[in-house]
């Protein structure tokens, strides 16, 4: 169901949402559109969507609202792209997407749009939200057995998916009582990894390292820390400190590769003090 070329704008589209939808239709139009945009599919666009979502998160971390506005536009464009491709297939369009999410949000906020009471805090809403989502998953299962972990997307980053799997399991009682036994599990997994390192068994090392990372996610969850955010910020600290080392050495007409490790460690510690 491709848009008729005669109905597409021949001049610059407007700057509102409808103008954006018209722009996307024109880009995808086989008659005079953009060859790259025309060739794309849902599968080829998906990696770009993930990248754009992370760039939004990065803009939020930076506190730069102009940057955030720009990145949110890029993310919105991803949704518009999917909507246009689906419209061409006769599946749905952007307005269907908007209607679906509006209906879903109304359904999941009965204390706002209905007569439900007892939702007096964000914590209450989180509990109620998850209960409503569980009912939705049960309805989609159409009477078939529905496991607690069913429906956790395999497309999520591994750390994020691990956290979601653990949260789902925790809701049915499969969870540590607090962080203390998770630390014990961490030490156990680290010791098992050390054993496999001594054996030089690559597959076994990967197995144990995976268990150790999974335990780190569990520890983050018990401490109410988002592991993706924690690691992203650790990446930022590493980048900042390493760049500090490079700049210091460049000022002396030197580089990292020719500098003894002991001196690099001293420069690293100096960079840490500067970050503090």
Rounded to the nearest angstrom, the distance between the terminal CA atoms is 58 Å
Helicity range of the residues?
55-70%
CATH architecture of the largest domain: Orthogonal Bundle
What is the tally of helical segments? 12
State the domain count. Answer: 3
Q: In this structure, how is the largest beta sheet organized?
A: none
CATH topology of the largest domain, what is it called?
Helix Hairpins
What is the mean pLDDT?
90
Number of beta-strand segments:
0
What can you tell me about this protein's structure?
The protein has 276 residues and is mainly α. The protein has twelve helices and no strands. It has three domains: 5-107, MazG-like (Helix Hairpins), CATH 1.10.287.1080; 154-225, Helix Hairpins, CATH 1.10.287; 229-275, no CATH class. Helix 1 packs across helix 4 and helix 8 packs across helix 10. The longest helix is centred in the N-terminal third of the chain and has 24 residues, at 65-88. The chain is globular and about 60 Å long. The model is unreliable at 1-6 (pLDDT under 50).
Task: Describe the structure concisely for a colleague.
By secondary structure, the chain is mainly alpha-helical. It has helices at residues 17-28, 35-39, 42-62, 65-88, 94-107, 110-113, 122-140, 158-171, 180-199, 202-222, 227-250, 261-275.
